[in-house]
Amino acid sequence: MPYSSFTTIGKVKEAFNLTTVEAVRFLPDIDPITPSQTLTAFLEESLPLASSASEKARSEGIIYPVLLEARRILQRRVSLFSGEDFTVDESIGLNGMCDFLFSLSEEILEIEAPAIIIIEAKKADLRTGFGQCIAEMVAAQKFNEAKQKPILIIYGVVSNGTQWRFLKLEGQIVTIDLMDYPLPPVEQILGFLVWMLRQGS
């Protein structure tokens, strides 16, 4: 039963005894970050094409470049993985691929603890990605604990490139931000990502 089998929030809550809290916003007021000229130019070219294309095009043309920019801002002191197997405990359904994962380790050849942000890419309706993203967040929590590098909060993102929704897992409580944050502009999204990565360091 891989991550993709967690098709609803209810299913993942029941499987891992989680409580959900719906919030208008759990992120504090965070200053936007001006992107590099490289990212600005890339998005000007890619957004018109990728925003109406496939999930793969959205991932490669919008989401991944933004995540790379967050890593660059942090002087590459974090690692970013794309499409990696993240099997933590197959017996309870915590197995399969993560679309994107940030780790607070600088190692890039394989995922090292602590994992801090899970990013799930979708083509359209973001709600269809919540269950899977939460399951991957639980896996990250257990992965960090098994590696003896636990961190207080795991963050989650569900995005179709032009809309971004944020979640956090603290203990057994999942908080879901009810707002969809648009891209463009990219500045606020970058601010959120960099802030989340700095929380764990």
Secondary structure blueprint with pairings:
Elements: H1 9-16, E1 19-23, H2 37-50, H3 55-73, E2 79-85, E3 97-103, E4 115-121, H4 130-146, E5 153-159, E6 163-170, E7 173-177, E8 181-182, H5 187-199
Parallel strand pairs: 1-7, 4-5
Antiparallel strand pairs: 2-3, 3-4, 5-6, 6-7, 6-8
Describe this structure in words.
The radius of gyration is 16 Å and the shape is globular. 35% of the residues lie in helices and 24% in strands. α4 (130-146) links the parallel β4 and β5. The longest helix has 19 residues, at 55-73. The chain has helices at residues 9-16, 37-50, 55-73, 130-146, 187-199, and strands spanning 19-23, 79-85, 97-103, 115-121, 153-159, 163-170, 173-177, 181-182. With 201 residues, the chain is of the alpha+beta class.
Q: Which features characterize this protein?
A:
201 residues; alpha+beta; eight-stranded mixed sheet; globular
| Net shape | globular
Alpha-beta classification = alpha+beta
DSSP helical segment count: 5
Order of helices and strands: HEHHEEEHEEEEH
According to DSSP, the number of beta strands is 8
> Could you tell me the radius of gyration in angstroms?
16 Å
- β-strand percent reads 15-25%
Low-confidence stretches: none
Quick structural summary:
This protein has helices at 9-16, 37-50, 55-73, 130-146, 187-199; strands at residues 19-23, 79-85, 97-103, 115-121, 153-159, 163-170, 173-177, 181-182.
